[in-house]
Amino acid sequence: MNKEWSELNKTMQAQIKKKDTYKMGIDTLFNLRRQLMQTLVSFKEDLCREDFNAISFINADGYHSKTIAYSIWHIFRIEDIVAHTVITEDEQVFFTGNYQVRINSPIITTGNELVKQQIADFSKQLNLEELYSYIFEVRESTEKILERFSYDELKWKIPDERKGYLKSLNVVNCDEKAIWLIDYWCSKDIRGLIQMPFSRHWIMHTEACLRIKNKMHS
Q1: pTM for this entry
Q2: Residues in contact with 207: Cβ distance below 8 Å, sequence separation at least 6, in sequence order
C-alpha cells in the first residue's frame, strides 16, 4: 500500500475514535480522498481512451483483475449507494443527475456481478467525461453528508429495514458476488462505513488502477 495513503488512513481511523480529535479525523479523511482523487484524475490526462478498457490481469484474483474504467465506476457507485441510500435514505446522485443515460451505462449496479471480458465490454461503453462528472459530484455530496455528523452520531447503526429498501432499488445485483454487500453495509455503524467504503475502498481500487497502468506502460 502507498505509504502516505496508508499513514493518512491509519491517522484518520485513530482520530475519529476520539471525541476531541474527531473533526481533525474528518479533515484527514478529506485530505486522503483529495490525494486519491488527484490520482484518478491523472489517468484522464495520462491515458488514452482504450487504456481505460484494458484488462491486463484478466485471470488474476484481486482488485487489479478489473479495468480502470470499471474501477472508477465501482468506487463511486458504491459510495453513492452507501451515502445516499444506506445512510441518508435520500436519492442517489446517479438518479438525480440522470447519470445512467449520460454515462451510457448498461447497468445501475456496483458491477460486482461482472467478470473478465464482461468487465472489459462494460468499460468500452462508458462515456468517460460523464463518468468523471459523476465521481466529482458523488465525492462532494458524500463529504457534505459527513460534515454534518457529530461524533456521537458515528455510533448510529443502519436500521434493519434499510436492507429491504436497498433491495427494492435493484442497485445491488442478486448474484452471489454482489448481494452480500447489502448485509455488509447494513451491519456497520457510520464510523465503520467511513472506514469502508469511504476511505480504504478508494485506496485499494486506486492502487489496483496504478498496477494496471504500470503493466500497460512497462
Answers
A1: 0.97
A2: 1, 2, 5, 63
